[in-house]
Design goal:
Layout (H helix, E strand, L loop, with lengths): L7 H29 L59 E9 L2 E11 L4 E10 L2 E13 L2 E11 L2 E9 L4 E4 L2 E6 L9 H11 L11 E7 L5 E8 L10 E5 L9 E6 L5 E7 L7 E9 L1
Antiparallel strand pairs: 1-2, 1-14, 2-3, 3-4, 4-5, 5-6, 6-7, 7-8, 9-10, 10-11, 11-12, 12-13, 13-14
């Protein structure tokens, strides 16, 4: 019998078909094996969307500042109270020489209040007085100005251009010392000397509400004297008199049975600066000054 001869291309086709059949069988077995295996746990990382800068419109009103990391105040805590006349910034007039008519001890004279605030925040305030040809002791206050008004550092009573008595205000240690006394006293906030209180009181009144200027309105200021005393002075607005000429008339509440008393008249048109001041009886041991002119 003669052997069957298979063409070469037919043999190749048969080999390919055989390989394909084996592949199908193996693939099916792999699918069956994968289906029977337990599922593996998968962890997914969620990525934040990219940040794209966007131009925002200006807010209609200023936003409240966020509390800092050091602040322990809860976000729902109410805001601090509104600024009151006792805490708002005090305004002081520019440099000027205020000339007064003086009546002291039953004699006429003149007085000059020289106010010199400096650009660096320092100030000098000096009151000179003269009766006839006789110069009376001068008063000088030196210190700094700020949001709270005047902060005196040294007050002196001067004779012949020399300091004879002095009061020193140590703003760092918060102490007041005196050349005429060994006393060293704690310095209250806003303490003044026997000259700077004029301007400080004017600034306090200026910073007050208009209702405060009605009769009964009061202002307080601590004042240090030359002999080692430091007391709180309370001034009260009193009813206007015919000769007040539109000024605010203030009177200090008595400090004791022998207090000579202090009255002053503040002019609203001049920033409530004193245009008249009386201490005690000008016909005896007291004095009175009345504004004549202002040289600025």
């Amino acid at each position: 019998m003669r052997a069957l001869t298979v063409p070469p291309h037919a043999a190749l086709l048969a080999l390919a078909a055989s390989l394909l059949a084996h592949a199908v069988l193996l693939g099916g077995e792999r699918v069956r094996n994968d289906a029977t295996r337990p599922a593996r746990a998968v962890s997914l990382a969620l990525l934040a969307p990219p940040v794209v800068p966007v131009a925002l419109p200006e807010p209609a009103a200023p936003a409240l500042p966020r509390p800092s990391a050091r602040s322990s105040r809860p976000s729902d805590t109410p805001p601090p109270p509104a600024v009151t006349p006792d805490t708002q910034l005090l305004r002081l007039a520019g440099p000027a020489a205020w000339r007064f008519r003086l009546r002291q001890g039953g004699q006429d004279g003149e007085a000059v209040l020289d106010w010199q605030p400096q650009p660096d925040g320092r100030y000098s305030l000096r009151l000179t007085r003269r009766v006839g040809e006789r110069a009376l002791p001068a008063l000088e206050s030196l210190g700094r100005t700020g949001g709270g008004g005047l902060a005196p550092e040294r007050f002196a009573l001067q004779r012949d251009g020399q300091d004879r008595q002095a009061v020193n205000f140590d703003t760092e240690e918060r102490r007041v010392s005196f050349s005429a006394s060994p006393a060293q006293l704690d310095m209250p906030e806003g303490a003044q000397d026997r000259l700077s209180w004029w301007l400080q009181l004017a600034a306090l009144v200026q910073a007050s509400t208009p209702q405060s200027a009605a009769p009964g309105g009061r202002w307080r200021v601590w004042v240090a004297g030359l002999r080692g005393e430091l007391r709180e002075w309370t001034f009260e607005a009193v009813d206007a008199e015919p000769d007040d000429a539109g000024t605010l008339h203030l009177r200090r509440q008595p400090l004791g049975p022998h207090d000579p008393g202090i009255e002053l008249w503040l002019d609203p048109a001049r920033g409530y600066w004193p245009v008249r001041l009386r201490q005690g009886d000008p016909e005896t041991r007291g004095y009175e000054i009345v504004l004549v002119a202002v040289n600025s």
